Amino acid sequence: MQGSEVSETRSGWLRLGIFVALFALSGAIMIALSQSLPPPHRSPFNAHWLDQVRKTKPDFVLLGNSMVQTRFDEPTLRKLLHLRPVSVLGLIGTASSGWYLALKNVIVASDYHPRVLLFFREQELTEPRKWTHGSKGRHRVEQLSLAEEPLLARKLAPPPSEPIELLSWWRERLMPFERLHERSDLLVDFAGKSLSRLAYRKADERTRMRRINELFALGNLRSTDAASEPAVVPEPQVFGSVVAGSFLPDMLELAAANQIPLTFVRVRTRPAAAGVPKTRGEQRYDADLERYVRAHGAEFYDMHDTAWETLDMYAEGDHISSRLTRKYTELFVEHMGQIFH
Amino acid sequence: MIFHSLDFAVFLLVFLSIYWLLPHRAQNLFLLVGSYFFYGYIHPWFLILLFASTVGDYTFALGMRRFEQKKKLLLVCSLCMNLGLLSFFKYFGFFVDNVLQVASLFHVALHRPTLNVVLPVGISFYTFQSLSYTIDVYRGRLEPRRSFLDVATFLALFPQLVAGPIERATHVLPQVERKRSFDPEQARTALLMMTWGYFKKLVIADNVALIANKVFALSSPGFALVWVGTLAFCVQIYADFSAYSAIARGTARLLGFELMKNFDHPYLSQTPVEFWHRWHISLSTWFRDYVYIPLGGNRGSKPRVYFNLFVTFVLSGFWHGASWNFLMWGAYHGLLLVVFRALEGVLPSVFRVRWLAPIRVLVMFALVNLGWLMFRETDIHQLLADLSLRPGSDSSAQLMAAGHFLGMIAFYSLPLAFDSVLYLCKAYDRARATLHWAVLEGAAGLLLVAGITLFYSELSSDFIYFQF
Fold first, then answer.
1. Of A221, B83, B421, B426, which one has the greatest count of Cβ atoms within 10 A?
2. In the predicted model, what is the mean pLDDT of residues A231-239?
3. Nearest residue to A269 (alpha-carbon basis) of A299, A238, A225
């Protein structure tokens, strides 16, 4: 190697070193900045659902997320059940952590002992962290939480066993960029609100935001695959290895301790309605789940092969079209009436 | 495995640390094993197709050398194998659905077969890459390789395996065969390229995707909202796909490979021809070399040239997806090119006068957006409904939303606009010639990392071109 080449290589390494150092410096500044910010404001418990259950005094509570909200029309259901009181708790954007909290802080706390029909998708019952992240996820969980939720903290606190999830878990703790987001979102909001004001001057800012949110209510959406659907869906984990860390044992225990009959209903998803069969891993997981739930005194229904729930009934993703909520309710009672015994 | 996952970060770090310690042949073997691991990470059975395609084309190419007189037959075999795989996995459902629809028109009740074909990720990309190998060998532009390892490594090269750039054997195979050594200068530029790619994906594409997804999820959007949604998609698809290409090129450069440029500021194009020289360059040049020129290219009468152009673009549209809207999108771009060619002959000054350049850019941008609406609306009835909307059809809430979204799109697009301005002023070229270039690159990297941490989207989605 000639002298000039050696010095060029050396300066190349130096430039690379400086570049990597600047990268690291930038990362370090952002980490320090995010850690110096106070944790986000905690949302208080929302007593709305508790009041709703206390007022309704239901025989049945249909619990879940938007899968429940887009499938069941409460007045129609009440009529079909010969005016028996029923409460539909479609808690949008919640998953098993939210359902555990709803069972404890809404249903058990209401002092009624209705039969609870819990509607879920895929492996949601053994995914304790699902939809607990980010400002929206945290807000939804906090709205269902009391001041102290030791079990929730315990279940969400331990580092996951999967190496990649573990890395992600550490990343979230060491680099709480979410705190930075709360501030940077203000800039984006400012840009949006400024042009919204220009586009329509007649309404004030609160009204504008409310009307924009109403515009995108589930009822106004068309029938499409969910935009967030991944191109490649991984196989589920083995049920036995994930159940202990989930909220499922606690939900079953809580229901049994409070004489609340619990029924789990696995809803039919859009791919199932399109004829996509279960993979071997899914079959194994579902069989184990059903066995576990039944062994703990709860009932289990799997709607994967329900022929009456056809593809044309779906709106975005696995949601049922708002036009067909009543019809779905009628069909559900007609075909699955045994659930309401 | 996807580029914007921790899995990939860990994989790349471990891979690079071992890769650069190995001698050349072992590097290639390790690259092949790593590429197969990368591709089969979630669905290992996808590897069967990739391997079959590799074995097939390796054998056909060698056969072409050995049995000169049966060259054509072997090429046909390669075409049948690659296009057969692609047709079955990508177009089977589309074909069946259309046969059923036609049958129903004649009151013939047919049952849809229960066979549900899953589209293996990246199949459109690697089959085209594999075809380029056999076609180039057939044309005598490339010597068939005896080393299966080299051919397999070229076809499976993980940075560009899933969504391109669609590389040519003539460009990459020599790089596979050549001894590679770690170059810190290259590594630095690769890191910057990747960071810009991650910024475009996580900050720009994923944030504007939320807007496009919201608008195109509405059952009856108004005129303003549809076009704001289209604009969001226009930004999203460019940021998303060019991000993938940037990360792919950066990753390849870290491994000692130089991949072709896939995007070159396409929204600054003044004509349809220029747009296709700047957008998805690897695909447009593939279609030029393997479809347009064999059809006759620019040779022959004007109608014949127009026909060649149109057919090439319809096929290019169909390559994107088994759906009528993609065919329509391809036909639309084919038509744009035909009209441009015709107008260029009649009104040459319109396309040459310098002061009209900004207007040409704006007109081309509007035409490209019209194309993106066809691309995004997979339901043909909904597309026709969108196209029939007239200004003033928005409710007040839709106008508010359109304004709000437009502000957000403008905000997230600022870095792209800034990049375009620098490109137009030739600032990159000037800065590259100075001694401070490395410092500027370092500062850019610093800002990009800060930007990602501040504005990355919490709801990240797959790269759009994964579905093709």
1. A221
2. 69
3. A225
